[in-house]
Amino acid sequence: MSDATRAEVAIVACAELFRGDGEIVASPMGLIPQFGAKLARQTFEPDLLLSDGEAFLLTPQSDTAGNDKIIEGWQPFKKMLDVIVPHGTRHVVMGASQIDRFGNQNISAIGDHSRPTRQLLGVRGAPGNTVNHRTSYWVPRHSTRVFVDTVDVVSGVGYDNAQKAGPAASKFHDVHRVVTNLGVFDFASPDHSMRIVSLHPGVTLQDVTENTAFAVDDSDVTETRTPTIEELHLIRDVLDPKCLRDREVRL
């Protein structure tokens, strides 16, 4: 039996987001997605390109000696916007203050649009990301405050709104998966509404339904795989020896 923690299972689930991506730019936002992308790069996706978020492509940390900043290439912001983003060669993992059944994401504001009760980040790059290349989401605390029936502001475009907007929005639209502290979800149902792909070990369907404001397809649920011995070594001894992961996902 694996002794992996929930945070370590979540890191592997985030790594699995990139399986099959090949030589594209990964843009994981947030601690757990960053560990996941590095884990994927160091195990089953060796061609994945990782940016420092500014102007360089870097080799991920490869050992505890600190060889974590080997520059592989130059990728200025203009090149990212002109070449990478509009041509589908990127997979971004964003957070979500709200997300609905069709994958519409809100990171902009909470409440009525004319008088919001909470001002958040603004839509940032979410509209462009979701209509131009693959996008996934990471939610560290799965709750009815996040998984809502309807988002207050559409920042990242979901399947229903991409279809309404026509080919310009739907041609490259690809909301891939949502990983949370409870499980993994996708939109592969006939109407592109959210379904459960897998529950993390120890999580029940009731845990998900009680923390989700809309009905989720649970017709084909599996258990999220646990880390291999090699992956646990990389997570615990190489990528996150300070256990920062446990601050974000607690069990």
TrEMBL record:
InterPro entries: CoA_trans_fam_I, NagB/RpiA_transferase-like. SUPFAM superfamilies: NagB/RpiA/CoA transferase-like (SSF100950). GO terms for molecular function: CoA-transferase activity. It comes from the Bacteria. It holds the Pfam family CoA_trans. Coiled coil: none annotated. Belongs to the 3-oxoacid CoA-transferase subunit B family. PANTHER family: ACETATE COA-TRANSFERASE YDIF (PTHR43293), CHOLESTEROL RING-CLEAVING HYDROLASE IPDB SUBUNIT (PTHR43293:SF3). This is CoA-transferase. It comes from Hoyosella subflava (strain DSM 45089 / JCM 17490 / NBRC 109087 / DQS3-9A1).
